[in-house]
């Protein structure tokens, strides 16, 4: 009987650990982390990190129009912008973040959208662009 109880406890612990790791969205590489890297790429003028953070369709659109896209990228922030990430909501392979942006002393709140591609969270730039 004791062996059965120990086996059940071990199974519960293993299942709980797998569930916590598999469903987590706030850890390394979660939506908040990816959004922060994306926002840092804007402030640091890091075009490669900017593209890497985006979902495939958006990234390909930028790559197809590389000269115009690089010029557009330069206009997204003319000076460092303070981004704050608030509430995170994950539904399957989609995530929504509440984001506030402070630029020139004015704060604007909006939503930021991410999707999961091949197991990695990526910014849905076209849907999120009003937040920029």
Describe this structure as you would to a colleague.
- The protein has 132 residues and is of the alpha+beta class.
- The protein has a single domain, classed as Nuclear Transport Factor 2, Chain: A, CATH 3.10.450.
- It is 50% helix and 27% strand.
- The chain has 6 helices and 4 strands.
- It has helices at residues 2-23, 31-43, 47-53, 56-64, 66-76, 125-128, and strands at 82-91, 94-103, 106-117, 120-123.
- The longest helix is centred in the N-terminal third of the chain and has 22 residues, at 2-23.
- It is globular.
Give a brief description.
With 132 residues, this protein is of the alpha+beta class.
Shape: globular
Strand-and-helix sequence, N→C?
A: HHHHHEEEEH
Question: What value does the Rg take, in angstroms?
Answer: 19 Å
**The level-1 CATH class:** Alpha Beta
Number of domains: 1
CATH fold node name: Nuclear Transport Factor 2, Chain: A
Strand order of the largest sheet: 1-2-3-4
- N- and C-termini, Cα separation: 61 Å
How many helical elements? 6
The largest β sheet comes out as:
4 strands, antiparallel
Question: Which key phrases capture this entry?
Answer:
132 residues, alpha+beta, Nuclear Transport Factor 2, Chain: A, four-stranded antiparallel β-sheet, 4 strands
Note the topology:
Layout: H1 2-23, H2 31-43, H3 47-53, H4 56-64, H5 66-76, E1 82-91, E2 94-103, E3 106-117, E4 120-123, H6 125-128
Antiparallel strand pairs: 1-2, 2-3, 3-4
